[in-house]
């Protein structure tokens, strides 16, 4: 199984990159399934039903999210729809809309379990992502699912690294999101789990992590509130391709992906 996982899709530029580049990657790299983090797909913060549906129509099979999942009020009923293909982190308290794990399938019936988690360091004081993550993985394995992807959405590189080692040998991949900066540590851990601290961002590089740089500089220099807007230029698609042995669920390899959208 060849899985393409895409980093945080940022606003309209990120959605355009997905729509124009993902079909080419599927065809050129023999991709079986595509998962993308969509939590910033609507104007750079949050996700709406419209931005989710636009990505799902672009040959993306499943969407994950993170701490910005609640930014747009209209997404709440969407999360509880039957057959919804948008996850929220599994370690939000009981009663939160939506779900944090699911199983998707290739056209020929091969299954991939996906777990969405959110870290706690420098973020909200949620339920323990390690305990919740292990329980979600065990539930998938009890269902007979061998190939499992974990989206670890958090701020601290140490927390992402810790989750990789914690789940090594138990899942196919632990891939980090949230910081919008692709890291250079992609590797397969000794137990057979593919890991990278952060897969990066699908969005504009002429920016500060997707936002118009002039607005971010104004906020840093003047220390007062500034409304952020997505930048527009030098759009890139970033993520990772993971090859998984379907018989064992272990990763055979991981490769960082970076493609520029033609101007």
Key structural traits:
263 residues, alpha/beta, Purple Acid Phosphatase, chain A, domain 2, 7-stranded mixed sheet, 6-stranded mixed sheet, 26% strand, globular
- What Rg is obtained from the alpha carbons, in whole angstroms? 17 Å
Report the uncertain regions.
Answer: none
Order of helices and strands: EEHEHEHEEHEHEEEEHEE
Number of helices: 6
CATH level 1 name: Alpha Beta
Main sheet summary? 7 strands, mixed
Q: How many separate domains?
A: 1
Secondary structure: number of strands: 13
Question: How much of the polypeptide forms β-strand, as a percent range?
Answer: 25-35%
CATH fold annotation: Purple Acid Phosphatase, chain A, domain 2
Strand-helix topology:
Elements: E1 2-6, E2 8-9, H1 11-29, E3 33-37, H2 49-56, E4 62-64, H3 75-79, E5 101-105, E6 111-118, H4 129-142, E7 148-153, H5 157-166, E8 173-177, E9 187-188, E10 194-196, E11 201-204, H6 213-222, E12 235-244, E13 251-260
Parallel strand pairs: 1-3, 2-11, 3-4, 6-7, 7-8, 8-10
Antiparallel strand pairs: 1-12, 5-6, 9-10, 11-12, 12-13
